[in-house]
Amino acid sequence: MYEIDALLGYLAGVPTYSLMAELALNRIVHGSLPAAGKYPEKLTQTGLRRWLQHAEFSLAHAQMRAARGDISGTVGQSAKAVIETAHALACAGHLWVINEKKLVGRSGLQDMHARFIDIPTKPAQLLKWLDELRTALKRTWLQDPVLTGRTTQKMRT
């Protein structure tokens, strides 16, 4: 249905449906363009599932890095998981996404920013920090009224 391309400046990559989002969101300055139509239900389901799978993989990779004391790798993979979860929430809420700017806030995950202020430096504390982040992401997922009615897919703890 869509691909995710690596692009400089993007943590989670840019989904190819961004072009359709631009068409759906932009104001026409001159001439005409075909209407993008409503948000595709198939994108809602596929995007939700796929982005959550990516987030789960990123969190698992962050855990492996945390156990090794790799602070930068842990934080990078954790931030990527937050962005991927934000993409999943956007798909579930039929929110067109052009880029990652303000995506965390627009998808209701703005409280996640504070979790990246004070990062532990020891592996045991880093693992605890990661577990708390994973729990917070799962809680957001499970409490979202749009998502709970759409699918039984849940982030694993």
If you had to describe this structure to a student in words, what would you say it looks like?
The C terminus is likely disordered. This protein starts with a strand and ends in a 9-residue tail after the last helix. It has one domain: Up-down Bundle (Four Helix Bundle (Hemerythrin (Met), subunit A)), CATH 1.20.120. It is mainly α and 157 residues long. It is built from six helices and two strands, in the order E-E-H-H-H-H-H-H. It is elongated.
What are the SSEs and their pairings?
Layout (H helix, E strand, L loop, with lengths): L3 E2 L8 E2 L2 H8 L15 H27 L3 H22 L10 H4 L16 H21 L1 H4 L9
Antiparallel strand pairs: 1-2
Helix pairs in contact: 2-3, 2-5, 3-5
Defining traits:
157 residues; mainly alpha; Four Helix Bundle (Hemerythrin (Met), subunit A); two-stranded antiparallel ribbon; elongated; disordered C terminus
CATH class: Mainly Alpha
Overall CATH architecture = Up-down Bundle
How much helical structure, as a percent, in the residues? 40-55%
Stretches where pLDDT falls below 50 for ≥5 residues?
150-157
**Shape field:** elongated
Question: For the residues shown, what is the average pLDDT?
Answer: 86
Main pleated sheet = 2 strands, antiparallel
What string, H for helix and E for strand, traces the elements in order? Answer: EEHHHHHH
**How many separate helices?**
6
Strand neighbour order, sheet with most strands = 1-2
**CATH topology group:** Four Helix Bundle (Hemerythrin (Met), subunit A)
- Overall radius of gyration: 17 Å
Structural class: mainly alpha
First-to-last CA distance: 28 Å
Give the domain tally.
1
